[in-house]
TrEMBL record:
The organism of origin for this protein: Hirondellea gigas
GO terms for MF: structural constituent of ribosome
InterPro entries assigned: Ribosomal_bL17, Ribosomal_bL17_sf
Protein name: Large ribosomal subunit protein bL17m
Keyword flag Ribonucleoprotein: yes
UniProt keyword annotation of Ribonucleoprotein present: yes
Length: 216
């Protein structure tokens, strides 16, 4: 059995090496975020399994609340898994058993599996950007130094129903002082135009007067 597994692994590895980049992209949908070259080291007494459970907890909170706040490095790591989960759900749908297994593992609240396929997949199916956004949160200065070792971050799903974190631009064109300034600019431009026309007319009259004097 072990020899068979080794032979299968070697065959699969050589098959991947011989695949072109376009063929490889068909196997795994490309993500639209920057991926760290190495995974984040997360202390956990339960080893790699405990690390994945911690990440699954953050992914669950993100899918449920659509905006979470935590340490920036941890959220950055969880973001990779959330992006991959949504990408696989869009690509394969809820009839694909491996994708369902992935959703059942990373979504610890099972009602969120329904939200993933029925709410988020339609929302992001035609998206051309990443499914999530990250922000750096302000540093807390009124706590003990041990509490601010890690920079804080905010991770959210795009197009969520929550109030936006980024201030929306306020149209100021119709503000009274801007209206007055615009009208003053128009009056100034009209006055300058009239001065140019008057100067041109005076120049033409002077030229005609000079020509008449030469004839006389």
């Amino acid at each position: 059995g072990r020899n068979y597994i080794c032979i299968y692994f070697n065959y699969s590895y050589r098959l991947l090496l011989n695949m072109s980049q376009a063929e490889f992209r068909k196997l795994i949908p490309a993500l639209r975020i920057a991926i760290r070259p190495r995974s984040l080291r997360m202390r956990n007494i339960d080893g790699p399994g405990g690390r994945l459970k911690r990440i699954a907890g953050h992914v669950t909170n993100l899918i449920r609340d659509e905006r979470v706040e935590h340490n920036f490095p941890t959220l950055s790591e969880a973001r990779n898994y959330a992006e991959r989960l949504i990408a696989e759900a869009i690509r394969h749908g809820d009839k694909h058993q491996p994708t369902m297994d992935l959703a059942n593992f990373y979504l610890q609240e099972k009602q969120l599996v329904h939200k993933l396929f029925k709410v988020l997949v339609p929302r992001y199916r035609n998206s051309t950007v990443s499914y999530t956004k990250m922000y750096k949160a302000p540093t807390i200065t009124n706590r003990k130094p041990a509490a601010i070792d890690h920079p804080k971050g905010i991770l959210e799903l795009r197009n969520n129903p929550l109030p936006p974190l980024e201030p929306r631009p306020i149209p100021t064109r119709n503000w009274i002082h801007n209206v007055l300034l615009e009208e003053a600019r128009k009056d100034f431009a009209a006055e300058k135009k009239m001065e140019k026309e008057l100067a041109l007319q005076n120049q033409i009259e002077d030229q005609q007067r000079d020509q008449n004097d030469e004839i006389d």
